[in-house]
């Protein structure tokens, strides 16, 4: 990063600190809105970091200073640790697994960087959200910030498309490292925008969210990320089922649900018809050098690695190194660059060990158990929206790493903590 870029980053952080000092919740909204800033990677005293991390650290320092001024700060912390212990236990297990796997990693520097950026920072930010976001209105503004970020990314991506800045196979990646990275960020934003659109009462607001939905849907299509498409449609089907499930008029609601599913099915058929002549679909049908076949090879290698590192895993960020080392056990790889094992569950097991995987599964069970309870008694639109995002993360996560990136890890923990907040906030 040059002098000019460093100066701009410094000025931006000063402005961010000023806003956060005035209103801590505004600082949280800004962090969420600027999640793509993790792609800006300055160095401080030779230590690599990201603008997103710096924002979280500045916000944490301001929160700590302001909190220490309160006489009951220590009481609040103790009460939080005790009252939310069943929420914190699976999180502690995930963190324990990640730390242990890092300690025994063959490259401590890489694993520490991943531990910091994809576990420590998002968890700190989640704590700030828990203590700062106190009302349903604030939760809605927070989700609106994430949706607005997705809409802005979609509009910027359009300039890349019209500039013909595409990958070699004609897919749109914009300023991200790959089309899948772009899709994995936009899909949760699209789902939240859909629920903000459904909950909006003002016509102007509805038109704004509707425009955002169309723009993000277009960009998602242009990424040609089949995993993101399937995950998003699965999340929509889940949310429709949950939304109609509690209706009193059994047959009417079931008919509406059936009509919605028919529309989604027709949409899938239409998109499939458009994609049928493409090289990607043909390779999938022929099972020859397709993305599915390459993923099968990655999964086979991941299971082989896991067989030899069952308890502690291999350390965060170490899959690529092990993957290449295990080439001798297989025929030539179709995909040589595989920083993640293309499966969220395998990724947690390999990089956080058996403890991290157990904590992850425990947290998911608690998340959906809480979500189903809340959707039955109130907060329906909010809770269903958050659960839909998690469904997307898990469904797309079957074929990709929908957690293992700076922005995606923040979205995951944001979704988890907002469900927990919904239990106690009005």
How would you characterize this protein structure?
With 426 residues, the protein is mainly alpha-helical. It has 17 helices and two strands. It has helices at residues 3-22, 24-33, 51-68, 73-83, 85-103, 108-132, 136-162, 179-199, 203-223, 226-245, 250-275, 279-286, 291-308, 319-325, 344-377, 380-396, 406-422, and strands at 43-44, 47-48. The protein has a two-stranded antiparallel sheet with strand order 1-2. A hairpin with a 2-residue loop joins strand 1 (43-44) and strand 2 (47-48). Helix 10 (226-245) packs antiparallel against helix 11. It is globular, with a radius of gyration of 22 Å. It starts with a helix and ends with a helix. The model is unreliable at 248-252 (pLDDT under 50).
Can you lay out the helices and strands and say which pair or pack?
Elements (H helix, E strand, L loop, with lengths): L2 H20 L1 H10 L9 E2 L2 E2 L2 H18 L4 H11 L1 H19 L4 H25 L3 H27 L16 H21 L3 H21 L2 H20 L4 H26 L3 H8 L4 H18 L10 H7 L18 H34 L2 H17 L9 H17 L4
Antiparallel strand pairs: 1-2
Contiguous helical run count: 17
Structural class: mainly alpha
What value does the Rg take, in angstroms? Answer: 22 Å
Structural shape: globular
| Low-pLDDT sequence parts | 248-252
Read across the widest sheet, the strand sequence of neighbours is 1-2
Mean pLDDT: 86
Into which percent range does the helicity of residues fall? over 70%
Number of strands: 2
């Amino acid at each position: 990063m040059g002098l000019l870029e460093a100066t701009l980053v410094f000025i931006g952080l000063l402005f961010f600190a000023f806003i956060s000092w005035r209103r801590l919740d505004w600082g949280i909204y800004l962090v969420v809105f600027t999640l793509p800033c993790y792609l800006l990677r300055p160095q401080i005293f030779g230590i690599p970091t990201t603008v997103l991390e710096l924002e979280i650290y500045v916000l944490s320092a301001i929160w700590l200073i302001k909190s220490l001024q309160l006489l009951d700060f220590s009481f609040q912390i103790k009460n939080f640790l005790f009252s939310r212990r069943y929420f914190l236990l699976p999180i502690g297990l995930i963190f324990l697994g990640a730390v242990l796997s890092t300690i025994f990693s063959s490259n401590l520097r890489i694993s520490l960087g991943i531990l910091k950026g994809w576990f420590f920072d998002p968890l700190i930010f989640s704590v700030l959200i828990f203590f700062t976001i106190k009302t349903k209105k604030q939760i809605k503004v927070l989700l609106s910030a994430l949706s607005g970020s997705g809409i802005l990314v979609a509009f910027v991506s359009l300039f890349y498309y019209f500039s013909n800045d595409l990958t070699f196979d004609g897919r749109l990646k914009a300023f991200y490292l790959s089309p899948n990275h772009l899709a994995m960020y936009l899909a949760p934003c699209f789902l939240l925008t859909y629920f903000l659109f459904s909950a909006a009462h003002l016509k102007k607001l509805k038109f704004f969210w509707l425009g955002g939905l169309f723009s993000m849907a277009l960009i998602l299509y242009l990424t040609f990320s089949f995993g993101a498409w399937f995950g998003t449609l699965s999340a929509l089907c889940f949310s429709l089922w949950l939304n109609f499930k509690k209706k009193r008029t059994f047959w009417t609601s079931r008919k509406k649900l059936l009509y919605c599913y028919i529309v989604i099915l027709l949409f899938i058929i239409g998109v499939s018809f458009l994609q049928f002549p493409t090289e990607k679909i043909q390779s999938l049908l022929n099972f020859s050098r397709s993305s599915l076949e390459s993923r099968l090879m990655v999964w086979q290698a991941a299971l082989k690695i896991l067989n030899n590192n069952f308890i502690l895993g291999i350390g965060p960020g170490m899959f690529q190194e092990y993957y290449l080392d295990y080439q001798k056990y297989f025929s030539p790889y179709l995909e040589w660059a595989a920083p993640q094992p293309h499966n969220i569950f395998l990724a947690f097991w390999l990089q956080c060990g058996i403890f991290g995987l157990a904590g992850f599964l425990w947290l998911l069970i608690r998340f959906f158990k809480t979500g189903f309870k809340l959707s039955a008694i109130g907060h329906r639109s909010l809770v269903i929206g958050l659960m839909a995002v998690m469904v997307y993360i898990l469904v797309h996560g079957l074929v990709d790493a929908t957690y293992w990136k700076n922005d995606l890890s923040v979205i995951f923990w944001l979704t988890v903590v907002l469900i927990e907040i919904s239990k106690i906030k009005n």
